Amino acid sequence: MTACDSVNPDRWQRILAGVLDSFAGRFGRVEPRRTAAAFVTGLLSDLEVKTCWQLAEQAGHARPDAMQRLLFRAVWDADAVRNDLRQLIAERFGAPDAVLIPDETGDLKKGVHTVGVQRQYTGTAGRIENSQVGVFLAYASEHGHTLIDRRVYLPVSWTDDRDRCRAAAVPDDVGFATRSELAADMLTAALDAGMPAGWVAADEAYGNSSVFRAHLREHGLGYVLAVSRSHLIPLDGGKTRVRADQVAADLPDSAWQRRSAGAGSKGPRVYDWAWLDDVCTDADPDDGGRHSLLIRRNSTTRELAFYRCWTPHPTTLAQLVRVAGIRWTVEESFQAAKSQVGLDQHQVRRWDSWHRFTILALAALAVLAICAADAATHESDAPTDSGLIRLTANEIRRLINTCIIRPISDLAHRFHWSQWRRRHQARARQSHYTRRLNLELQQ
C-alpha cells in the first residue's frame, strides 16, 4: 500500500453519494432533491463565496431561483434531514465512549432583521458586535468527529417582540431559551435518537450552569465541564465553598501529574494535571456517581483551567484527561465548517431558512469528516512511513473539487451570469434610490 492509496476519488464519490442518499427521501419531489444535492456539492466546491447565486452558477443553473426556493418555499423538513445525518454519523463514528460537545459560534451581521441578530458578545470577534449566535452539537469518537445538530439563539429582545419574530418566521411556540438550555435540548434529542455516547465535554458557558450539570446526570452521562477560576467548589459535602483557583493554590507539588491531552498540530498537548476525587458532592448525594475536580496547568505559562467532573462509575485520571482534550475537536469542526463549506456565508433572514442552510452545510461537513476518517484508516494500514501528514479536511476538499466536482467552464454560461448579476444589481440600486427619494419627499 502506498501513500496515494488514501487518496481515492472513487471511494470519496461513493461517500458523497451515500451522504446525499441518506436524506434523499425527505424530498417529495425530484426537483428539490436534485437541488439539495447540487447545493451540498456546491458547498464543497472552491467557490470563494457560497451564497445561492454562486451555488446556482456552479451547478449550471441559469438563475438562482431553485437554490433560493430550496431555502425558502420548498416543502421539506430540515430537522428530519438532521435526524438522517445524525443516524449516518452514528453508524460511521459511533462508540460507547464517544463524547458529545456543545458549543456556540457567532456570525457578524448587519441590520436588525436577520433572525437572532442583536449586539451581543461573540467569540468570533472577541467582543460585543452586531451578530447572530448559533449553538451547535459535535460528536467525537476514536473514529472521527463532526457537527451533528444546531440551534439559533434568540435573545430576549427577540422573544419579547412577537411581531419581529413573525416577520422572521419564528414559530409562535418558540420562547426564550438560554444557550445551555439549547445545548441540553440537542443532547436529549441525540440520546433519544440512539446516539451512542458516554461523555459530555464543554466550556465554561455550560460548565458553570448547575442546571445543565444536573441535566447530564439525569441522563447518566459522564462529564468533564470547564468552569471559571472564580467558580465555588463545594468541599466537605457542601459545608464549605472555596474558589477553584484557591483550591489549586493550596495543592502540593506532588498532586500534579504530567499527561498528554492528545495530539496537536505541533505535537502532544502535554499539561500538568491535578485530580481531586470525591469533591463537589453538594448537588445530589444520591445520584450514585462520583464527583471530582480536575485542574490543568500549562507547564510553561502556569496558566490554570478547571473542570467539574462526574461519572456514573469509577474512572481514571487518564480517561478524564482524554475527554477534556477531545473538547477541542469542536473548534476544529467550526473552522472546517466555516472555511471549507461556508457555514457562516448564508445570506438568509428567516428562521426556517437558517436551519435549512446550516443542515445542508453540516451535510457537506459530514462528507469531509467521513472522507478524512476513511483516508486515516487506509494511511494507518500502510506498512511504511510515507513522510506525509494525514489528509486534512482542507486538502480533501481540494481533491474532491479537482477529482469529482466539474466546475462549469462554458464561456456562454459565465457571460450569462455576469449579465444576470449586473441586471439584478442595477434593479436593486434603482429600488434603493427610489426608496431614499420617497423618504426625502415625505420629510
TrEMBL record:
Pfam families recorded: DDE_5
Signal peptide, first to last residue: none
Domain Transposase IS701-like DDE residues, every copy: 23-231
Superkingdom assignment: Bacteria
NCBIfam families reported for this sequence: transpos_IS701
The protein's name in its UniProt record: Transposase
Species name: Plantactinospora endophytica
